[in-house]
Write a structure and sequence with these properties.
Helix content is 0%, strand content 48%. It has no helices and eleven strands. The strands form two sheets. Strands 2, 4, 5, 6, 9, 10 and 11 form a seven-stranded mixed beta sheet that branches.
């Protein structure tokens, strides 16, 4: 049974930083994806950063390149999202998610079977 629990959201001024955490339990798929997604009010959910668990290849959305970083700590299994140089347009609910497998790309949201409850990030 896969569970993901996020924490670390909050309110910050533009230019500030936050670190989000996602504790992952029960995930044993050797060739899947882990990712961070976000959804702002009135907008569709979008991918932020994804990583393939078999290759550790990480891909970033253009809007966050150079500002956000994903960090994996395997013991315990936690993925962190370091958010630097935050902008008001980064305001959203942030979700971590896990896919048991993927074909072609970890950006395909319909591959993600497991989702956390979300954590709010507000940038003013």
């Amino acid at each position: 049974h896969v569970q993901l629990v996020e924490s670390g959201g909050g309110s910050v001024q533009a230019g500030g930083s936050l670190r989000l955490s996602c504790e992952v339990s029960g995930y044993t798929y050797p060739r899947g994806c882990l990712g961070w997604f976000r959804q702002a009010p009135g907008k569709e959910r979008e991918g932020v950063i994804v990583v393939a668990t078999d290759t550790d290849i990480t891909d970033y959305a253009d809007s966050v390149k150079g500002r956000f970083t994903i960090i994996r700590d395997l013991t315990p299994n936690t993925i962190y999202l370091q958010l630097n140089s935050l902008k008001p347009e980064d305001t959203a609910m942030y979700y971590c998610a896990a896919a048991p497998w993927y074909t072609g790309s970890c950006w395909q949201q319909n591959a993600y079977r497991y989702w956390g409850q979300g954590t709010q990030v507000t940038v003013s």
